[in-house]
Amino acid sequence: MTRFRLIVLLLVILTAAGAGGWALWHYDLRWRPKTITKHQEEITQLLETAGWVSPGLKDKRLYMVSFRSCPDCIRFKAEQYPDLHAAGVDTRLIQVARRDVNGLAKSTPAERATVAQLWLTRDWALQERWMKVPPTAWTAPGLPPVDGDMARTAVVEAGRKLVDELRPLLKDNGVNFAYPLLVWWDEKGRMRACACEKRETYRFVRKDLGLKPAP
Fold first, then answer.
1. How far apart are CA 27 and CA 25, in angstroms?
2. Threshold 0.90, pTM exceeds
3. In the chain, where are the structural domains located?
4. What's the CA dihedral at 77, 78, 82, 85 to 10 degrees?
5. What are 183-204's pLDDT values in tens digits?
């Protein structure tokens, strides 16, 4: 074989290897959750003491940090919660009311009132009623307002502080905070997390929690 042919063959092999590596990253590796190896106790404590609501199942835990109008959060709940509940996974949902940014409101009075009530009462039925109404139409009927109430304002701030504290702890584990943030433990007992904004991440969450692949 001539030197020219050897060079061509080598280039073909390198190109194929590069394409294979790119495909592996593009379709698989970049969607995989991270194993949490640092700050495990601190992260667990923050999640467990937050104002989460859940259906009260007893098998496995999946924490989800969300805000009401988050489209990726709504999609995950609609597509994955039924299967997770059927498998006995306790979906512990932590709703937060985001801070205003540059003078622009990121939450509504009704949202803040509902978040405060959820944190104080852990009322899953209230969460379910909230989810059935479009975010812009929800008026938080019968719930005390947060604005002007120092105690309830402090509860809403606790949710924002939770996000502030989770960000650097997760970043140390290679997870950039985004909504929905999911944290769970796989069948080997490893703490896992991802900012699961895309459907491509769902298959890994399901596998870790012992669910079959989605049809």
1. 6
2. no
3. 1-31, 34-208
4. 10
5. 999 999 999 999 999 999 999 9
